[in-house]
Design goal:
The protein is α/β, with parallel strands linked by helices and 326 residues long. The chain has one domain: Aldolase class I (TIM Barrel), CATH 3.20.20. It contains 13 helices and 8 strands. The chain has an 8-stranded parallel sheet. Helix 2 runs antiparallel to helix 11, helix 6 packs parallel to helix 7 and helix 7 packs across helix 8.
């Protein structure tokens, strides 16, 4: 008897989006948090494999000073080595006007900015005050707009802060609204340390929408420290949110949360979305194969549950390669 690798059985749930954008952050947010320095050619190959797996929304790198994030010191070289498929996005995070200019000179035509909902994280991660980081992001958004460059805005620590504990939702909403009013097309609410729960997710999204930011402009950036990411995705789906950040293999760690396992793994998110009958355009088997390719190169096991399960299925006696990646 031939063993057939598992695949999610699609059972649609009424009221959920028919299609979801999976915004891939592995090459940027994933790799920048890891301790090892990945060679430029491996980063570029990772991006190519993700595009080949169907990703059309990819954050390639970050144009920050190399002294801040040595892992991404080769940002321009990575961009130069990756051919972006027609209709696909190639986004880079920029911290300021200097980063914006470097990104544009490298050929980037869409950028992301990040602010904080708390003073502590702004100081620790953005080297600024909360209001100063927001002002700097607005400056970047306005400058990018003059060059026809769309901007995606992150609001970090939107659900909890390791130093301040509970975060005032009004501060989250104010930061999100300021970025939105400045011209940011998408606002990604970040559970930076992975402490959100479905009820809190619902509240923060609802209050943000109540401030005038329409649901299609919202995304969630989730970390899976306490294993709540998929539950939070489901809560957001019920509110109509249709864009979620994820990192292939669960790459990335948050240095501010002890025991943090990193970003929500792309494979785990896609398994659930496909199980709900939601289209993503992504090839689950190709994503898992990409995770195992990178894991072999790095010598580090990926935390993605789905990637591990598909690997086990592929090793089962009698399983063909096609069946294992179905």
């Amino acid at each position: 008897m031939t063993f057939v690798a598992p695949a999610p059985r699609a059972e649609a749930e009424a009221g959920l989006p028919a299609r979801v954008t999976v915004y891939e952050v592995g090459p940027r947010d994933g790799l920048q948090a890891e301790t090892d320095i990945i060679p430029t050619q491996v980063k570029a190959e990772l991006c190519r494999r993700l595009y080949a797996a169907g990703s059309r929304d990819l954050e390639l790198t970050s144009f920050v000073p190399p002294t801040w994030i040595p892992q991404l010191a080769d940002a321009a070289d990575v961009v130069a080595d990756v051919s972006v498929p027609d209709g696909a996005r190639a986004v880079a995070l920029v911290p300021n006007l200097t980063g914006l200019r470097r990104a544009i000179d490298a050929g980037i035509r869409e950028v992301a900015v990040v602010v904080s909902a708390t003073e502590s994280f702004a100081k620790a991660n953005l080297n600024n005050t909360r209001s100063g980081a927001i002002d700097r992001a607005v400056e970047v958004i306005q400058a990018a707009a003059s060059d026809g460059i769309p901007v995606r805005g992150y609001v970090s620590m939107a659900f909890g802060d390791p130093w301040e504990g509970e975060v005032d939702t009004a501060a989250v909403v104010q930061a999100a609204a300021t970025l939105h009013e400045a011209g940011s097309r998408t606002i990604a609410l970040g559970d930076t340390i992975g402490v959100a729960t479905p009820g809190l997710t619902t509240r923060v999204i609802s209050e943000t929408v109540g401030a005038g930011i329409e649901v299609p402009s919202l995304a969630l950036h989730l970390h899976d420290t306490y294993g709540q990411s998929l539950a939070n995705v489901h809560a957001a789906l019920r509110l109509g949110v249709a864009e979620f950040d994820a990192s292939v293999g669960g790459l990335g760690r948050c240095p501010y949360a002890k025991g943090a396992t990193g970003n929500l793994a792309t494979e785990d998110l896609v398994w659930m979305l496909h199980g709900l009958g939601i289209e993503t355009g992504l090839d689950l088997g190709a994503l898992a194969a990409t995770t195992h390719w990178l894991s072999r190169i790095r010598g580090v096991a990926a935390p993605s549950n789905v990637a591990r399960a598909l690997a086990a299925a592929a090793d089962a006696p009698g399983t063909t390669q096609e069946e294992a990646s179905a």
